[in-house]
Amino acid sequence: MAPTILTREQWQADIQANWKRYYADAQALKLKTRLGTLVATVLLPLFPQNEIGAVEYLTAPLEGSPRFDAYRDFVKQQSEQQHKDLKVFVKHLLATAEKNSNMQEALNYLVLESGIFKAIEQDADDYRALLEGILNDAWHRLKEPSGIRVVAEQIIAGGNVIIAGRDSNLVSQDFAGDTATLLAYLASVRAEWNRPDLNRILPFQYHAEYTLHIHNLFTPLDVWCHDEHGKADEDELIKLRFKAVNEEQDEMRRSVIEMIASHPYLVVTGGAGTGKSYLARYITACLSYACDPQEAERQRVDGLMLLGNAWIHGPLLPLYIPMRNFAASEHFPATLGAATATNLLRYICATTGEFGNNLEQYLVRESDGGYRALLILDGLDEVDSDEDRIIIQKVIEQWADRFSQCRILVTSRTYAYRQNVSWRLSNRFTSAELAPFSRNQIGIYITDWYDQASRLRPASFGGKEVASEVTRNLARELKTVLKDDENSLLPLMRQPLLMAMLTLIHETRRSLPDKTSELYEATIDLLNRWMPHSTSGADRQTRIVSKINHDLLLDALKLAAFHLQCRQQSYQKYPGMLSRKELRQFLKAQNTRGRNLGVSINTLLEYLGTRNGVLLSDRPDQYRFPHLSIQEYLAASALIELYDECQMPEGLKPAEAVWTFPENLTVLLSHAPYRWRNVAMFVGAVISGNKGQDGRWTLIEELLPQEEIDEFEEDIVFRIYIAGEIWASAYLKARLPSHRVIQSRLVNNLERIRVDDRLDAPERNLTASIIQQLIQQMKLR
Length: 781
Description:
The chain has 781 residues and is mainly alpha-helical. 59% of the residues lie in helices and 6% in strands. The strands form 3 sheets. Strands 4-5-6-3-7 form a 5-stranded parallel beta sheet. A 3-stranded antiparallel beta sheet has the order 8-10-9. A hairpin with a 2-residue loop joins strand 9 (616-619) and strand 10 (622-624). Helix 2 packs across helix 6 (86-98) and helix 20 packs across helix 22 (386-402).
């Protein structure tokens, strides 16, 4: 056990006397870098008993310094569980340091002040080996996302490599107009775009629009390193990406901020809910603070620090334009022949007041070769027609020609941009596709969410005195769920929009629902209310969402999910694709049942593909659910609620004139047990959410063989096993004689399959456990 350290001198003396032992223990943690190992080494004497107290005497000489405020705050925010795990603590320190320069300085100070180098220097061989290791790390970092890499790439490409002064306000110096108009513009940008769309669906009882800010919530996003579109079969590419995600292959990822910094003309693509607008607004907010240092200091927001070391361009003027708004404005050119950069410039000037009067002069004024502004065009594909997109293509290309000192960032859905050659931008525009969240990014998101929740809405957690502790516990609990339930929740958390929904549900309820079906029901309800923010288009979108009959829409989606599940291959780990024609038919069918969907089918198709989130559209006229488990959950709901509308697979016949539940599920399990197994589990979960137990007992009885069978076929084995799991998921009590009969039959059938090798080892172990629980319950009667 590490000695109790009470003074700064004791800490230094202990490290210098025992550094070899501590360094060996730190190496055993297998952290990725020597820096991580060194940080762990100097913290080892302080773990686990007094690391909080250590902050006070280690940082006392520099009390009040921002860098040690960062370290002090970080330590105090960590959960008790994390303090007991040094590896987790150090990894979180390093992850925070990646986007916080104050934390970087704090960690450097911590290592240097410990005196460990002085001790190692006494052993020449060890000292040389350690320094060589640190140098190797430094060379390796040249290959990783960093400012050095950005510079190197631009030199190789023959591009502009001027590094702007990070502390000088170049925008205000070069802006010819009244500085007040510039500051007013920057303030309006922050007010309008530095807030997440979640404000529209938050259940909190406070003015969310004035408290949630994107710059506080943004979790660093990655893009896939290589653009494989056109080089690989689409299905093969999907498999490659799924493998990379599941195996956490970091080498296939690259920081999107670095990508933006490296390429003056970039198109970032991704599906609905993958973070495109989230990213565009984050960049906008960071640069608006960087261009307004007095307000940044007042708000304690360092925009350039938030962008990280890869951002070498200084405080560029941000020009954020939602493409849908521009296309709907009077400044949008009526014909391709009339399209020029002036159309977009006039739109910006018209929407930014007096500031716009001097914008053109600022953009064309000669400089030292550096860039002056970043034009951010969000949602190129959301413009309604291909004809209008071709017009926008010409406007963008002419803007790049006319304003050569302006960088351009464009966002679009992947399939729309890659498949439509007619309006795709020229080769000077590089494209990159957003990658899903990694486990580490999920953890950062949860930490940041609850950190902001504690500071900005403490009343929601019992007041300022206890809010910090309550939110730390909530963050820890949600991360624990992630570790304990990776198979079901991890894939959902990888998508930023779904991650936001799950976090909302967790904070609102103070936990995630125990039953997966309840979690999905709550998630889909939030997704149906989610609506991206838009200035001129906001009223129109609000009217659309308010008119939609969400009950009928959800019924259509349930039937669509059932249809997809009918052709889902058991070996596929990703959901199937639904054509626009097929989805139209499901929507049309609900529109003729005495009620209507509230808006036109075409409006709904566009809404589902671009802004709803329950369905994603990755390819032209193709839709899918965000994850296979959502498809399975909705298919289960269709079997229970819409059994007379489910189009069962060809060749299957009902016992009576029409299909009913639960006969339909039993037949499907007999027909294709692997395909319908997870759906059956969702059926059990949905039913277990209903009051009363009769429905669950009836389902179990239906799944069990109805007559004595000498030899079980494979489908019967799985039906019995699933019946056991459904019982165990709710721990049903036998309240009626009929329940006790079913319970006895369940035990007998489970005994017969307990060692069946058609079940894998975990399933056989669970079967044995369920049998024991059933027998124990029967004894208690």
